[in-house]
Amino acid sequence: MRASAIRTVVAGIVVAGAVAGGSSGAAVADGRSARADDRPYAATTGVGVHNAYEKTKYPYFADALDSGAGMLELDVWTNVFGGGWRVSHSNPLGNDNNCENAQRPEELRTKARNQRLDGCLADMKAWHDAHPGHRPVLVKVELKDGFQGRNGRGPADLDALLRSKLGDALYRPGQLAEGSANLDEAVQKKGWPTRSELAGKFIVELIPGTVEQGNPADTLWTDREYATHLRDLAGAGRLGDAGAFPAVLGAASGDPRTRYTDASIRPWFVLFDGDASVYAGGSVDTKWYADRRYLVVMSDAHNVAPAISATNPTEAQARDRVALLAGRHASVVSSDWYPLPGVLSTVVPRG
């Protein structure tokens, strides 16, 4: 499809998410509000921001939340050489981020930054309280060096932290799986809720981190560890305790869950995350994901040929790329397009 034609399609179908000021939804093309959008969450494509906690992108995490983006990413460290769940790109021992641990909406943008994960979650809850009908936001958490259960930073500890900080603003696996044996059965039987039903909710995605993947001593990565945790919670009748959704990382042909030798954890993955260039290259049947109502995050969208700027393409270029990857069945198109809030708040039909 020619770029001009793609722009025409996008102009006709774009739905704006919540933007600066945090209203429950900006007006869509036909004058309805995004809050009245009853399309299933898995039937739409949104736009995400890579490493939204970085101060060079947003002075405060509240600014990232105000951007309208459908996905925001956090990098988290758990090693024994530092305290708590640290949020930083390259400092494994401390915090380097735009989170401020706001306890109330009026504290947003008023406190010291460089807080731990609990501080980022507190900002999310304070912002949520100020904008209770906000767009659903996928919060992608990369556990840079994996879980550290022996030091109070295991899957159950993360669940407790998410529940305590986000409360009812957190959409949980148990809610999606209600009435079904596992997440896979749930999404294939009834699908994800509609966007309006998920208004005011955060959905937490977990992926294994780059350091964890490069550590030969780490044989239990985040994805497998958390999926096992979900399976075991369900077996104990406690799936309601869970707070996050594990993602299968890396675009691959066929069903990438077959990489897990323990077949009992495969049905606990309904979220997939990988390089947009691979998904768009023709070797992966991306319709397979859409037909099963799975979510697919396509990262580094700017690198899909022909490559465009990772940070500041023209708005037309970014919208063309969103349309292209929506056509490849992306649920989230991710890059570093933080200077383009009009693009970040875009929501289009998937497929």
From TrEMBL:
Pfam families: PI-PLC-C1 (PF16670). Keywords: Lipoprotein. InterPro entries: PI-PLC-C1, PLC-like_Pdiesterase_TIM-brl. SUPFAM superfamilies: PLC-like phosphodiesterases. The keyword Transcription regulation does not apply. This is Lipoprotein. It comes from Streptomyces lasiicapitis.
